[in-house]
Records
---
Amino acid sequence: MAIGWVVEPHLQLRRDSALLGSLVRADGIIIRMDRTTSVLDALTTRVKQRVLSATLLHPERSWYLHELARHLSIPASSVQHELRIFASAGVLTRRVDGNRVYYQADQRSPIFRALSEVLRKTSGLADVVRDALKPLAVKLDVAFIYGSVAAGEERASSDVDLMIIGRAPLSEIAGVLRGAEDEVGRNINPTVYTTQEFLKKTKTGHHFLTSVLEKELLFVYGTADNLAKLAGRSDGEAAQNEPIRAARSSRRRRAGSAGREDS
Amino acid sequence: MVVACEGYRVVGRGHHQTTLRAFEIAMGTQASALAAYFETCRRKRNQVDYDMANVATESEAEDLVQKADEFNGLVKSWIQGHHPQYGL
């Protein structure tokens, strides 16, 4: 999600439903964060995004045209147009079986991994989960996906492990995630901490939390800095903090094979 | 109790999961949120039993106790309304 910064020196503090996130005071100037265009919307059309998400985020399965169109609730003519373009570009494979043509992600494509990662972090799981949690947004401090999905190592049957820190109880979170599970085709397993319990357990080196925070995280709400502050670390410590790492590109995973650094 | 009142008994593998689905069908939309919640708790219980003992948090445990009480009341009220012959 692209964020635009608007500096308004004499802005009165007021509630504005158009504002996203918090009002931050820095050196007496109120800085307002405005939501602009999503990253994927800036890059490509919604139909292309959804076709790519359905195929590249589930590379183990193939689709025939009408099956995919029904799944996406998009007219078959629109889906067909995109499938032909992606097959022609080598992003999808095309296989004829009887009177049906099946399309599937081509994992041999040199951009398969990169594209999947972009999708996963945007129109993929993170966005679906974020949208599902919106009704509870005011009660959330930080939420992130961890485990195999965040590390990009998930299998078709992998669950989505989600950690939520804030004031929303598990009973409310379970309810809003149900639709998201249907959409991503996976179980979403939330673990919920109050900020007090999270602080207490990180301070005492709680084994489960420590092991989660040492690995890749895919933020749904909040940032690595917010997380570090909840764990009782200062801004300076947050930047250098080893146990808490924000979701990165797959630099470590690719360093050995690609031989180049990600930007 | 709800499933039994409706004249069914859950057997076989996945009986916990089936029971949750069955009571939601029997009780309708009033039970949907609780059914989703208890399904999440069921999966977490499996994780605690088989994978990691620490994935259940204190706030989750407190929430579960409260919701169990709420569900108990909902079930009693449903049985009184739908199967008063059982005299709850």
Note: Residues 225 and 239 of chain A are 7 Å apart (CA to CA).
---
Amino acid sequence: MSNTHPPSAAAADTHSIEEARKHIRTYLIVGVALMCGTVLTVWASLIDFHSREMNIALALTIASTKGFLVAGFFMHLISERKMIYAVLSFTAFFFVALMYLTLFSMAHGNIVHIQ
Amino acid sequence: MEIPYAVKPRPDTGLYNAKMGIWLFLASEVMLFGALFSSYILLRVNAEEGTWPHHWLNIWLGMTNTFVLIFSSVTVVLGWASLKMGRFKRYKFYQGITLLCALAFLSIKSFEYRDKFMHYEVHLKDGRIADGHLQPAETTDKTVVLEGKYVASHAELMEGALHHGGEPKIEIPRDQIVSMENYGPWHNTYTALYFTLTGLHALHVIGGAIVIFAIWGPLAKVWEQDPERYTNRVEVSGLFWHFVDLVWIFLFPVLYLL
């Protein structure tokens, strides 16, 4: 098994070798940002805002930002093909609908009592 | 017969088949975890005051696992970028680290599960509740030994961090016990959600690790025959791995911190 291969043979559809090189720095920065975000989430959860809702909102905002970084840079969603955006727009629609149905059900008094 | 568009992108979608396939699969995965998260919201928001536990899990173990998964996501993309540059040995190194991270994540998760299965809530005839970790070596037919404490009410167990070791041992005669149950999925709504969500996630980690290992080890010869196809396989398995990381990013605050 050889350790290297002519780079031209390994080049895939959208990303050139130069692009891959350039991306490495971005990946490392995103990785550090994600770890900082994790520390920030724990720190924010330990602060007493006199409102648990505030803690929840802050934690979910940080989690969403981290999620964007993973999807956008590691999964290359910020520079993907239109077809993938089309697939994900359907997913986003049904995901939002699912969450909306949950909240709608709670807002209209269909309460589930938990013991 | 050669399967078309297994390596080169289709002219209409601009994607090779496996990449299109993995994104469709991930779309279905979003709905799977979305349904579980919506169940969590429904059950959590409607829980009566004082019945939802807080800080029952070890935050530092959860945080360590978050770091492990983030680090593994970085090594996955670095491995893929290495292949793009034709550096196979470097790719092997990075993906090797990814596999070790997967093992570390599952080991920590197993430790947490074991902790919950050894943790008991014991109701006594005099109304007191004993809460702590079972000491199997010292437990006999006549007495149950826990490392823990007595609490006056069930509500007292809901708030504050549960202790993980270092507490006094309490000896409970078996004839004084009304009921005894560990913190398994059957314990309450929270533990049911915890085990369902993290269990499903752990299965994804196992599945992802198996695929990454197969490409890294037994299927590595494909690199010699068709490097472009091999790189695509690494990219597709990497997309799945990042999704697993993405799910954990939401699971950690929801289950451990809030």
Note: The two ends of chain A are 60 Å apart (CA to CA).
